Amino acid sequence: MKIICIGRNYSAHISELKNEKPEEPVIFLKPDTSILLKKQPFFIPDFSNDVHYEVEILVKINRVGKYIEEQYAHKYYNEIGLGIDFTARDLQQKLKDKGLPWEKAKGFDGAAVIGEKWIDKNSFSHLNNINFSLLKNNEPVQTGNTSDMLWKIDEIISYVSKYFTLKIGDIIFTGTPEGVGKVEVNDVLTGRIEEDQLFSIQVK
Hints:
Blueprint: E1 3-7, H1 11-16, E2 26-30, E3 51-53, E4 55-61, E5 77-85, E6 87-88, H2 89-97, H3 103-106, E7 112-114, E8 119-120, E9 131-136, E10 139-145, H4 153-160, E11 171-173, E12 181-182, E13 188-193, E14 196-202
C-alpha cells in the first residue's frame, strides 16, 4: 500500500506557515513503515525538538485506477477516515532551506496515524462539507471543514492518478487546516469527524 499526502491544501494553513500558495497540489509520500501501530503511543523521535500534529481527512482507495477522470473519481473510494500527519518541523525547515525532499521529516516511523474507524461516505450529506477536529488534552486545537480544501477529494484522486497508479488499500491524506502545533510528552490527541471519535493516542 501507498500513503499519498497532499500538502498546502488549506489557505489558512498555508498562511500560518508562511508558505506560497501552490498552483497545483503538492504531493509527497509516506512509507508503510510510518504507520503508527494500533493501540501504540506516539514516541517523539530523538532527531527532532519540534514535532507537530496535522489532522487530516483520509480516503481509502478501493479499486485500481490510472488517469482517472474527475467525474469518475467517486467510484474509487467508499470510506472516509481521519489521521495525523506528524511532521518534524525543525528538520523539515532545514530540508526546505536546502531544497531537499521532506521524507525524513514526514516519513519516519510512527509519523502516520490512521484512525481505527472508517465511515461510509454515503453517510455524509455532502463530502465537501465534512467537519473534523483534533483535540489536545481535551482542548480543541484544529478544526476544519472539507469545503475549505483548495482541491476537493475527487480532484485530488484524479490529479494523483496521473502520476501514480492507485491500488486497493492505498490511503490519501488530503491536507491539514490551520492550528498545527507542537506535541509534548504525555499529550493525548483525539480526532473526530463531526461528533464521532476516530482515534485517541498518547504521546511519549
